[in-house]
From TrEMBL:
Keyword Glycoprotein: no
Pfam families reported for this sequence: LRR_8 (PF13855)
Keyword check for Repeat: yes
GO cellular component: extracellular space
Keywords, sorted A to Z: Leucine-rich repeat, Repeat
Protein name: Wu:fc23c09
InterPro entries in the cross-refs: Leu-rich_rpt (IPR001611), Leu-rich_rpt_typical-subtyp (IPR003591), LRR_dom_sf (IPR032675), SLRP (IPR050333)
Source organism of the structure: Lates calcarifer (Barramundi)
Length: 224
C-alpha cells in the first residue's frame, strides 16, 4: 500500500483476505467501508493516527475478521464494536486507560489479547474486577508495562499465557482467576506461562503458589 495515506483507501479488492495498512498517517475510517470486505480475515492498522472517535462503528459489521492489529495508535479506550468473529486483538502502545466488560461481550471467541505499553491500572475504574471474564476462550493475555498494582481479579480460567512484566504489582491475590476467593487460583490448571518480572512483589501467598503447580514456566522476582 502507498505510504502516508490519511484514510482507508477505496479500491481494495472486495475478496481480499489480508489488508495491510500499517505505517501510514490514517486518522479516520469511513463508516461502513469495511463492511464490504466480506472475506477479510486479517486487518493491520498498526502505527497510524487513529483515535477513539475515528474508529467508532468501523468494525461492527465485518463478518469474517479474525485478526485486528491496532497497535501504536492514539486510542484511549478499547473499541466497543468489535466483531463477533475476532480471535486476535493487538492494542499495544496506545494510550489506553479504560476498558469495559461490554467490549469483550461482543467477541467471546477471542484467543489472543495484547494490551502492553498502555496506562491501564487497577487503582481506579480503568481495569474493574472481572472486566475480562466474558473472554471465556482467551489463551494469551499480555498486560506488560502498564500501571497495575495487583494482578487483576476475575481472569478467565482458559488463559495459558499471562504476561505482567514491568508493572507496579505488589501483591498476587488468590482470586486472580475467575473469582475473588483465594482457592479459585487452584483451578487455574490451564496456565502454562506466567511472567511477573520487574514488579514490586515481596511475597506471594501460599495458596497462589499451590495454584501455580501446573504452570510450566513462570518468572517472578522479589524486590525489597
Amino acid at each position: 500500500m502507498e505510504e502516508n495515506i490519511l484514510h482507508v483507501p477505496y479500491g481494495i479488492p472486495y475478496n481480499a483476505r489480508y489488508v495491510l495498512l500499517m505505517n501510514n498517517h490514517i486518522n479516520s475510517i469511513q463508516l461502513d467501508l469495511l463492511n464490504e470486505y466480506v472475506s477479510m480475515e486479517f486487518l493491520v492498522l498498526s502505527n497510524n493516527l487513529l483515535t477513539d472517535g475515528a474508529i467508532e462503528g468501523a468494525f461492527e459489521g465485518v463478518p469474517a475478521l479474525k485478526r485486528l492489529y491496532l497497535d501504536r495508535n492514539l486510542l484511549e479506550s478499547v473499541p466497543t464494536d468489535l466483531p463477533f468473529s475476532l480471535e486476535e486483538l493487538r492494542l499495544d502502545n496506545n494510550q489506553l486507560g479504560v476498558m469495559s466488560e461490554a467490549a469483550w461481550a461482543r467477541c467471546p471467541g477471542l484467543l489472543v489479547l495484547s494490551l502492553s505499553n498502555n496506562s491501564l491500572g487497577n487503582g481506579s475504574e480503568s481495569l474493574p474486577n472481572t472486566v475480562l471474564s466474558p473472554l471465556c476462550n482467551l489463551r494469551t493475555l499480555n498486560l506488560d508495562y502498564n500501571q497495575l498494582t495487583s494482578v487483576p481479579l476475575g481472569l478467565p480460567l482458559s488463559i495459558k499465557e499471562l504476561y505482567l512484566k514491568g508493572n507496579l504489582i505488589e501483591q498476587f491475590r488468590g482470586g486472580a482467576f475467575n473469582g475473588i476467593s483465594e482457592e479459585s487460583l487452584l483451578n487455574a490448571t490451564h496456565l502454562e506461562s506466567l511472567n511477573l518480572e520487574g514488579n514490586r512483589l515481596k511475597q506471594i501467598q501460599t495458596t497462589v503458589l499451590l495454584g501455580l503447580l501446573y504452570c510450566f514456566h513462570w518468572i517472578y522476582t522479589l524486590n525489597f
